[in-house]
Amino acid sequence: MQIVKDEGPITGEQIAEKLNLTRATLRPDLAILTMAGFLDARPRVGYFYVGKTANQLFTEHVRKLKVKDYKSMPVVVTEKLSVYDAICTMFLEDVGTLFVVKDGGRLAGVVSRKDLLKIALGKQDLQAIPVSVVMTRMPNIITCTLEETLYEAASKLMRYQVDALPVVRPMEDGEGLEVVGRITKTTITKAFVELGQESVV
């Protein structure tokens, strides 16, 4: 790579000659450096240094990851579900956020652990209170779409200090949003760990 950086554009034959290697021996290495984005190649011109650091290439890769490839299944409940049943659902599904829907899957609200804890601290009958009383309602819900990048979703999680985002798309009738997935802080962590494993391999 240093040879290309200093003398590029330079052909594969010229690089091989400088290293006292055959072109065939060098070909896989040049292919890897080109695919990784460190070098670029042009027919009849040769290889040249792209000038990007490993960090820049990693950042570019991260910013291409899409929500649709990392989203997990959403846990949805109806507005009429009791707070008691919502707490049970949260424990059984092992999630920190429930998405509340109405009218065949239309997003109506979001209920977090904090919302349920707040209402549970009183002396109310939790089986008599519907989740619609404690949920955050539309349009005050931060969402993301399938085509957004994971970076954009992570930025929203941080900026708005929420634990999960519903992944949404417009309903077929054009009224409201359908919940098709979720992105959580755990999702972002898993993606980060996978990227780390890829770079090691």
TrEMBL record:
It holds the Pfam family CBS. Keywords: CBS domain. Coiled coil: none annotated. SUPFAM superfamilies: CBS-domain pair, Winged helix' DNA-binding domain. Residues 70-126, 135-199 form the CBS domain. InterPro entries: CBS_dom, CBS_dom_sf, Diverse_CBS-Domain, HTH_11, UCP026546_HTH-CBS, WH-like_DNA-bd_sf, WH_DNA-bd_sf. The keyword Oxidoreductase does not apply. It comes from the Bacteria. This is CBS domain-containing protein. It comes from Planifilum fulgidum.
